[in-house]
Write a structure and sequence with these properties.
Layout lengths: L2 H75 L23 E3 L2 H4 L12 E4 L30 E4 L6 E6 L1 E5 L10 H5 L6 E3 L14 E5 L1 H10 L44
Parallel strand pairs: 3-6
Antiparallel strand pairs: 1-2, 2-5, 3-4, 5-7
The protein binds calcium ion (3 copies).
């Protein structure tokens, strides 16, 4: 092979090698792009999940503060607030607290205008705990200025499904965030939290399994409410009852105030406190 032929052969090999390297680089590039795509696709889903968790945590903290505000309102005013029924954030009340379901009275209570998704909270109260009649319930001698007594029994019940079992019974007040899917009530369980009756649902979060449920629900535990009112010196005028409404509203908290209250009078006879 002469020098010219050798030179041609070397340049041809170099060309083939360069062509191969160029092709390999494109293949590498494709793989890199594919991996990046997979990583981005994989990271976007967790990001949306993280954002929803952040919003849910934020809203739950709001709800817990709002529950504290309800109890504080009761300590000061001797009753729970009636709902806001015209959207101005102010309590709408008649003597009997006729409209027991509506919006949370955020302006009067100073918090809770909207949840993390910019939507209003739903609030329902037991009328006997929010009216301006003293001692609605079983008080024989009601204390002036206290809407309810130790033996007053609230009328809100929480189930673990629209046709489910009881989670908490005889709840004085409850607050609902309808979650990210606010106003979508295709789920029967969520619809139960949007109607006007005293039955509400609290169950595990699910945005995929049917029926979906993303509502956040927090309620005032009756025995804790009454215990706190007693602890600040408010005296319920239940002359013949020692105060036990017989219900344990559980929202992750034990509603037992720690006192062994019973519905027995001084003679040891049982009184029916659920009248
Ligand atoms: Ca109002
Ligand atoms: Ca919802
Ligand atoms: Ca309902």
């Amino acid at each position: 092979m002469n020098n010219r032929a050798k030179s041609f052969s070397r340049s041809s090999a170099a060309y083939r090698c360069g062509f191969f390297q160029a092709g390999f680089s494109l293949l590498e590039m494709s793989i890199v792009l594919l991996v990046i795509g997979l990583l981005l696709g994989g990271s976007l889903v967790p990001l949306s999940v993280q954002m929803e968790k952040r919003d849910r945590d934020s809203t739950r903290n709001q709800l817990l503060d709002m529950r504290e505000a309800l109890v504080g309102y009761a300590l000061v005013n001797g009753r729970l607030p009636c709902p806001d029924t015209d959207g101005d954030g102010l309590i709408d009340i008649s003597t009997t607290c006729t409209n027991v379901g509506g919006g949370f009275p955020w302006a009067d209570l100073g918090l809770g205008k909207e949840d993390a998704w910019g939507q209003a909270f739903t609030y329902r109260v037991s009328g006997d705990f929010a009216d301006t009649t003293d001692g609605t319930g079983c008080a024989a001698s009601p204390t002036a200025g206290l809407s309810f007594s130790l033996c007053s029994v609230a009328d809100i019940n929480v189930l673990d499904g629209a046709s489910g079992s009881a989670v908490a019974s005889a709840i004085p007040a409850i607050i609902i965030s309808h979650g990210k899917n606010w106003a979508i009530t295709s789920s029967g369980d969520e619809a139960e939290n949007s109607d006007s009756d005293g039955v509400l649902v609290e169950r595990g979060f699910s945005n995929s399994a049917s029926p979906t449920f993303d509502d956040l629900v927090v309620w005032v535990v009756p025995n804790i409410l009454k215990s706190k009112m007693v602890s600040v010196g408010l005296v319920f005028g239940d002359s013949s009852n020692n105060g036990n409404n017989g219900n344990n509203g559980n929202n992750g908290n034990n509603g037992n105030n720690g006192n062994n209250n019973s519905c027995e009078n001084s003679n040891g006879n049982s009184n029916n406190c659920n009248n």
